[in-house]
C-alpha cells in the first residue's frame, strides 16, 4: 500500500545518511505485498561490522522507529544485521530466521552483494530435508511412545501435556520437512500444515484430539496416522540414538536441538 511505501522511503532516506548503515532490506508482509492497512513495516537494517558489534554489546538488536511513519499507528520494526551476520544466517540460521527472509528485497545498499546474501538465507540443501525428517520423527516417537506413556503410568499431568504438545510439534515439523517447507513459528504451525499438499487425511483432527485429550488412545491414533503416511528415513532401531544425539548431546555437537532449529 502506498502509505507503507512512503514510510519505507522515509526510513531509507534517514538510514542512508548514517555512515554506520550499509543497507536496508524490507521483509514481512510489505515485502510480500500482503500487508493490511495497519501493518507495520519490517526491515533488516544492515550495519557495518563495527556498528553491529556495538549494537550487540549494547543489546540494541531490535527496536521500532515511529517518527518516519506516514500513517496513524504506523512504525518501522527494525532488526539489525551485518554482512557477516547474513552470511552466518545462510549457513546455520534457525527456520524462523530463514523464513523471515523469504521474499525479502533490498531497497537500498552500499554493498554490491547484499541481494545475494539475502537470497541465500531461505535456501536449504536437499539432503538436510531428509535429515530433518529423521530427526523430527525420532522426537515424535519418543515423546509419544516413551514420555507420554511414562506420564500416564506416573499420573504426571505436567509430563502428559508436555509430551502431547511435543509429539504434535515434532510430527508437524516432520510433515513440514516432507513438504520442504520452513517453520515460521509456533503461532503459524497449524495454518501452515493446513496449506500443505502432503499431509495425512484427518491429521488436523488427530492433532486436536491428542492435544485436547492426551492419553494412550489419542497418542497411538496420532502416531499411527503419521507413521503410515510415509516411509520415514529412520528405522526403529536408530530412533533412540538419534533422539539422544539431537536432543541430549547438543552441548557436545554444537548444534541446537531440532525443536529450536
From TrEMBL:
Which parts of the chain are coiled coil? none
| SUPFAM superfamilies found in the cross-reference section | Nucleotidyltransferase
Q: Which Pfam families match?
A: NTP_transf_2
Ranges where the Polymerase nucleotidyl transferase domain occurs: 16-67
Q: Which UniProt keywords apply?
A: Transferase
Q: Does the keyword GTP-binding apply?
A: no
Give a GO molecular function annotation for the protein.
nucleotidyltransferase activity
What Gene3D superfamilies does the entry give?
A: Beta Polymerase, domain 2
Q: What is this protein called?
A: Nucleotidyltransferase domain-containing protein
Q: Which organism is it from?
A: Ruania alba
